[in-house]
Amino acid sequence: MLRDKQPVTITADTHPFLNGLWKQNPVFVMVLGMCPTLAITNSVKNAISMGLATTFVMVASYGMISAIRKLIPKQVRIATFIAIIACGVTVVDFLVKAISIPVYQALGAYIPLIVSNCLTLERAEAYAGKQPVVKSMLDGLGMGLGFALALTCLGMVREVLGAGTFLGFPVFGSRFEPWVLFLLPPGGFISLAMWLLFFAWRKERAAKLAAAEATQ
Question: How far apart are CA 29 and CA 196, in angstroms?
Answer without folding.
Answer: 8
